[in-house]
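Lecture notes, unit on protein representations.

Consider one protein chain, 279 amino acids long.
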Amino acid sequence: MSKKRELEGLYHRLGLLRDEVDRLRREARLWAEKRDAIYEKIRQIKSSIHELRQRRDALNLEVKRLKALREDGLKRRSEIIEEIRRLIKERKVMRGDKPPRSRSSLESQLERIEWRIQTEPLSLEEERRLIDQIRHLESQLEYYRRAEEIKNRIDALRGEAERLRDETLNYRSKILDLAEKSQRIHEEMLKRIDESKRLKAEADEMHKRYLESRERIRSINLEVKRIHEEIRMIEEEERRLKEAELKRRIEEEAEEKLKRGEKLTFEEFKALLEKGRIV
């Protein structure tokens, strides 16, 4: 194969390689654009995951707070029920000490005695007797006062227990509602995490294709560089051969002119001088 045909083949190969590099660059750019578009989707999904996680955690904190309030309410209600039982038991025990007379009868008698002491002149002995009666009446009335106190206390405690029951039921309803919302948000968050992982795998594959294209470009550029060097060497050799052929022709022409005694050109004189034909 002649050097000309060889050079033509090399230049043709260079053209093909440049076209391939252009194609690969377009391909790499396309992979990079697709990869970056997916990365943007992933960024948006991660942002939404962060928002969902914050909402879920806030709901969980509220559930925790409501559970603590409910536990406190249940504990307080249990204490109240225990106190009601204690008071009912005390009231049952007291029934054995119930005075035979009614409260109103005792209070009426007490008022009459106190009125006598305040309004009638009494002997010391009579006044002492009446005071003893007052003490006796007061001790019997104490039963009714304590019984009334117990009843009022039980009524108040039952009202408080009822209020706490409604309150703890309300807490329970809110806890269930918030827990359900938290679970739905958690499930949505897991779906988006899975979606993010799937997109990440796609983006990684596209990045791999991008790197493969860039590596192919690098490999082709090395081949282009090698071909350029090969062309340079061939062209340098061609130039050297042409220069040698030209020099030989100049030397031959100069030799002929010298034999004929004709005037030499500068190039011819220089060629003979370098050859040693002229001193």
